[in-house]
Structures are given as structure tokens and as C-alpha cells.
Write a structure and sequence with these properties.
single chain; 12 strands; about 375 residues; five-stranded mixed beta sheet; Aspartate Aminotransferase, domain 2
Length: about 375
Amino acid sequence: MNNESEFDIETLAVHAGVEPDPTTAAVMTPIYQTSTYAQTGINEHKGFDYSRTANPTRTALQKSLAALDKGNHALAFSSGMSAIDTILRMIEPGDHVLSGNDVYGGTFRLFKNVLEVYGIEFSFAEMTDPEAVAAAMRPNTKLVWFESPTNPTLKISDIAAIADIAHAGGAWLGVDSTFASPILQQPLTLGADFVVHSTTKFINGHSDVVGGAIILNDEEIAKRLHYLQNSIGCVPAPMDCFLTLRGIKTLALRIRQHCKNATQIARVLEDHPRVKDVIYPGLDSHPQYELAQRQMSGPGGMVSFTLKDGGVEAATNLVKETQLFTLAESLGGVESLIELPAPMTHATVADSPLAVDPSLVRLSVGIENADDLTNDLLRAISKA
């Protein structure tokens, strides 16, 4: 599709990166289920020689992702964690990574338990406070990393302000925008150097694929990342790329419904006598509500909350009592999920300063009927 900048994101979600197949004119990108490609001579081919290096289905997905996040380049990966790990391969021993203090447990595990032993320094700061970020910068800081919104406490950080701080210190800024998706937020336009998504979540949206992506503008860094990806081999299969492309076509519609349902549920929970705190960027009680209004085009489909009494036991009973909300890890699918982050997705940070309130309940609000979802939660709360 030509002149992508002329089109709104709803149109890009359907068309970007997807052209009629040159062989058959198939409207949907085919699944190029092949490992290798015929060459007419030594290193003479049609742009593809081996599917670890490149695959036409993956290329279409990458073009779509780049267009949605307003980037020049995108790389699709076998998981969100492999995407983050590949960026960290550009960090050398002795370099410092400044991370947000509220990140996915798997990210913390990668930083502290896997990469730190190779001589990379990691520290954690409150990213909602730009002054705290500036104070935590070091002369050897090479990368500033955070999520916005964060997992699971849904903090919102000022991407533009932190980009200025990172760049003034000679560091890259990487933003994990999984909870927002490109529909609600495009960090590259605010100064980020890398945007990362777990495409497993909202981008695919159907809980049937694990994948990740990096989107960026710098051509030389994109080449370096592709070299690393090809060397490591952390690439998605053609079928996974096809399914993710299929999911993207309805991304804008799904996100709209996620936001609508989550907003209704958050408001009901906020008024419930047994609910203590509700964390949702769409509520004016959220600490970064005004920033979310400026930086995002919608509040998203994630809600976290705690109960007034009963502590961990009540929260545990609650997540077992829902019928429409499935007790499961992950998020961003069309179906609603519920979990306790502390013993589940964030168990790795239990004994660290990043530990999560063990009674915090996290909802991934799906696209079912909002009243049905609300009633399901109300029944579960009454039984908890």
C-alpha cells in the first residue's frame, strides 16, 4: 500500500504490509511454509535464501507492524522476551541499563538472573517521576527501559520527557508498549528509539500465537538487530506470522471494545463497597490520568484492583469464582482473563524491591458483553 502516512490507523490495520500475492493474486498473504528457496546462481535469488533470515509471510507482518507504530523498520520475533533479549545483545559488559521499577516478571528475570552475570549493570527507578529518572542515570547508561502502561500496576510514564533525559545522557530509550498496542500509543513519535510488543497479546488477540516485535526508525541499528536475530535464530514460524497478520486486521475494532468494557468494569468496581483500590488509566482517580489523556488515545483493556478485606485469601477465592473471566496467565485476547500477578506472572520478583502486592487482582478485559462480564465479577466478589 502506497502513501501509508495518508491513512488512519484503522485502515492501516487492514491493509498495511498486505499486498495481493504476485503469483496467484490471493488477497491474504500466503503462509510460505518453506525453509529454503531456489537460487538461480550462487547468492542469486528473489530476496529470500533461508527462512531463518527472511520469509515472505514474516516480511508482510513486519511491514504491517512498522506502519502501525509509525516506524521505518520492524522485526518479528518468536516471543516478546526474545525481542527484548535481542535489544540487550547490543549492551556490552560494563554498560548500565536503567529499568522501570514495575516491569513484567519475565523481563526482571532476564535482566537480573540471566544477563547481569555477563557484566551488564541493572538498576531500577520510578519512571513516573522524570526527576528520579534523571537522578538514576549514570555515565555508562546505555539503555533506559520501561513499560507504559506497566504490568501489573498500570503506571503511565511521560515518554517524551524520559526520551529527552535518556538522549541527553547518550542512552537509547526502549518502551514496552504491549498494554497499549499501536492503536492507543506510538512511542516512536514521542522520542523512543525502540518500541517492543509481545504480539502474543492484543496485537494477535486470539490467544493462539506466541510472538514479539521490535519497531524502530534507525536503519543501521535495524541492520544490527537483524544480524543478531539471524545469528541467534529467534524467529517466528510462517504460520504464526500469518495468524498475527490475521489478528491485526481486527485490532482497531477489538481495542475499542476492550476499552469500552474495561471502562465500565473499572467504574463499577470503583463504586463497589468491598473494593479498596481500582487502578485504571481511564479513571480520573488514576495518578497519571491527565498524562494518559495526552499520551494515549484510549485507556486500554487492563484493570487491576484490591479488595478492602480478606487480603490474599479473599483475592484467591475471587479469582477462582469467576465463570467468564478465566483464571490464566497472559492477556490481550478476545476472552477475559483474571489472575493474581504476585504468585503467577510476577513470581520472579517476589523477593525483590519490585515485589507486587500479593492481594492485587489483574483483569484482562475481553470483548464479551460488558454487562455479562460485570455481573460475573460482582458474583465472584460476593462469594469471595
